[in-house]
């Protein structure tokens, strides 16, 4: 199945996995629309891609509804947007954990409800392997990821014949880690890479390739695929 002439919307498409997905879809001949909360970064990415950029806050019902009103009927939707705030379970603020669910889980829910996806098209969600491989001080992120994976399976039934799948990445070197001090970030990534069978951490392009498979494989729905460099087996 080709993406030539197809309309693809990437929510969270201004950076990281979303941007890598938008770039790949564009190279495959799709009409690409990217949506993001950060209007300045969004317009820079859209100009670079030759895509349409629409500022969108996935935590807002009205904003998500307006996005898909502007898009009209589409063929494929990808949701990579996430606003993650976490910390030690006993002390992380309830505002932060609510914001994480609001941005990652409820944001995807809003997109799934608002998008008008043509029959045979697809919706791809992006979770994360903390859903089944928890780490300290990350309970809310693991919970959000697990909820997304369950949602994907349910929506594969509720939205059929639209196909719904979920990609669950391991440790990926994307701008979401930019808030870390550079030395600490590089040290963390080096340690992770050394422990993985593939000998490196993931890149946005690694996850984008699996998202492309979900868009173009007409027999894939209700599937969760873990792309983690072997992180689940070590």
Structure overview:
The protein has 234 residues and is an alpha/beta fold. It has one domain: NAD(P)-binding Rossmann-like Domain (Rossmann fold, 3-Layer(aba) Sandwich), CATH 3.40.50. Helix content is 44%, strand content 18%. It has a 7-stranded parallel sheet with strand order 3-2-1-4-5-6-7, sandwiched between helices. It is globular, with a radius of gyration of 17 Å.
Task: Show unreliable segments.
Answer: none
Strand order of the largest sheet: 3-2-1-4-5-6-7
Structural class: alpha/beta
Number of strands: 7
Give Rg in angstroms: 17 Å
Total tally of structural domains: 1
Shape: globular
Number of helices: 7
CATH superfamily: NAD(P)-binding Rossmann-like Domain
Helix content: 40-55%
Biggest sheet descriptor: 7 strands, parallel
CATH domain class: Alpha Beta
Overall mean confidence score, pLDDT: 94
What is the subunit organization of this protein?
A: single chain
CATH fold field value: Rossmann fold
Strand portion, in percent? 15-25%
Instruction: Sketch the topology as an H/E string, one letter per element.
Output: EHEHEHEHEHEHHE
How far do the termini sit from each other?
35 Å
User: In CATH terms, what is the architecture?
Assistant: 3-Layer(aba) Sandwich
